[in-house]
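Supplementary material to the annual report.
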Amino acid sequence: MAARLDERDAGAVAAALTRRWVRGYTAWVGAEAAERRRAEIASDVWEQRTDAHERRVAPVTVALAIAVRVVAGMPADLTWVHTQRLAMRGLPADRKAQTMNTLGSIVARWWWVLGATVLAGLGASALLLGDSDVNRPQVAIVVAALVAGIALRRSRPRTAGSLVVVGAAVPAVLFWAPAVMVLGIVTLVGAAIEVVALTRGSLGRALAAVGLVALAASWLWTGALGLAGPSMMPGVLAPVVFAAGGIALLIITGSRRGTVATA
Amino acid sequence: MTGVRRRPGTLLPLEAAIIDAALGLRRAGDTHFHGFGIARVMAEGDDAGALTSHGTLYKALGRLEAAGLLESDWEDADDAVAEGRPRRRLYTVTGAAQVALAQHRQATRPAAPLGRAAWGTP
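Predicted assembly:
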């Protein structure tokens, strides 16, 4: 009996996993296309399970067949998402925000802010609970940059993105803590993309990217030298020049586009 | 749009198979078909017998519809409720699909053998 229940469950599990996959990738496309795709796949899976039941095919075999169809179709699913998103590119931001379904819109616009929030939380924990090895001034600056970036996300998105790039730069090089490093890299890249996307013109975007690299490099350089003590003095000029140059580039290329559309 | 562009009016093998299967269903009296239905018909006519993956199938159906070779609409919700199943998206082949399939077959027909091959000599 238990084996039979397990077998029946296999089909349900495959259907549930399919549903999750479809919900996942359709979160990135327009609501209408997403709803249609979800409904069509739901119908397809139901028909396949029913057809298999009528043919007396074992539920485990059906579950495997459904899984194979899902996995084999993943590349096509992803290119479909890409095509759908390209088709949406010409739409105004407000219209696009309306068209995108809620989950996709929130994730697309806020995922790097979530990363910054987690990093700030980790930094704050290190400040409060960390031992004497923690470089508290540096961690405090990282947390301050991240928190300021999160706070300014709505009103000054370019400034917010730049601050998060600075804040995420140090976590992004913590190779001895791989999870934090990956989160740092992802957050840094997301924030950098936001800053570049909010900058006008190809040249402006390229210069803004250079500015961000300079800013992050100066901060990392400073961090490597140490914020305090005599060892910082010999090389202090270069990071300052990098930081000033980066900030100048970001200000020069500053966009007039104020806030981004909210989710 | 990125990717490899193809000549307007040409069909990919999967698209030709979908139209072929749909026309077969229509000859058998089924003017409408749904995604899984056409996948099953194609699988039955295929030596491998495997169902086309979801992503590939629905992307191809979407392309065919965008090209005017298929038309689709949701079935009446009451019909689905009455049968206790999710609503089906029902497709029909258009006249343009028949023309496109004929052109595809013409274009992909193997060239007539020439020379010795035509006489079946080695």
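Residues 1-5, 257-263 of chain A have pLDDT under 50 and may be disordered.
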